Amino acid sequence: EPILKRCRYLGISPAVMGISKESNRNPNANKRKKVSEYGMQLKEKQKLKFIYGVLEKPFYHYFEIAEKMEGKAGENLITILESRLDNVVFRMGMALTRRESRQLVSHGHFMVNGQKVDIPSYRVKVGDVIELCEKSKKSDKFKDVAEATKGRVVPLWLEANRDAATAKIVRMPVKDDLDYEVEETFIVELYSK
């Protein structure tokens, strides 16, 4: 399904996905129908799954982990999704989109604490240092991406050095660090049924 169409349905900005296009269609088109409570819960779950590119089975697994952690399950779920390696690479400005960041990680372009990691779902911890491999630093591709993402705001939980292509995890991400709106309580209610 086209990304812009999906973004419009879920009510998120394409910029969240790393795409700079804006749709010229009516933004209020989806607000005509009355949506049930289940429909709103499902839409919030689909929104998070779409933004992070996670399928249903791993998403539910993340939810189970979030429930067992201390604190609120919905906020823990967001923390888990934000701390995925592919998301960190996107946030530090080394990829144009999250899909591209997933591909770059799986091709082995990034190291965590000096070890090459090619698993996009790898969860980073506080104090981890993510860096671009030496061979990849010379690539024109990454120079172009760094130039294109210069204006992207790096979240407060990440200490990024774009010139050296490195980033350090200062603290775990929280809901306030997100650049989009999400009602995580709906997802908790949906899975609690």
How far the N terminus sits from the C terminus, by CA atoms, comes to 29 Å
What do the pLDDT scores average to? 86
State the helix count.
9
Strand order of the largest sheet: 2-1-3-5-4
Enumerate the spans where pLDDT stays under 50 for 5 or more consecutive residues: none
Structural class, by secondary structure, is alpha+beta
Secondary-structure element pattern, one letter each: HHHHHHEEEHHEEH
Structure description:
With 193 residues, the protein is an alpha+beta fold. 44% of the residues lie in helices and 9% in strands. It is built from nine helices and five strands. It has helices spanning 3-10, 37-52, 56-68, 73-82, 85-91, 98-106, 134-137, 140-148, 184-192; strands at 110-112, 115-116, 129-132, 158-161, 166-169. It has a five-stranded antiparallel sheet with strand order 2-1-3-5-4. Strand 1 (110-112) and strand 2 form a beta hairpin. The longest helix has 16 residues, at 37-52. The two termini are 29 Å apart.
Q: Layout of SSEs?
A:
Elements: H1 3-10, H2 37-52, H3 56-68, H4 73-82, H5 85-91, H6 98-106, E1 110-112, E2 115-116, E3 129-132, H7 134-137, H8 140-148, E4 158-161, E5 166-169, H9 184-192
Helix pairs in contact: 2-9, 3-4, 4-9, 5-6
Question: What are the salient characteristics of this protein?
Answer:
193 residues; alpha+beta; five-stranded antiparallel beta sheet; 9 helices; 5 strands; 44% helix
Brief write-up:
With 193 residues, this protein is of the alpha+beta class. It has helices spanning 3-10, 37-52, 56-68, 73-82, 85-91, 98-106, 134-137, 140-148, 184-192, and strands at residues 110-112, 115-116, 129-132, 158-161, 166-169.
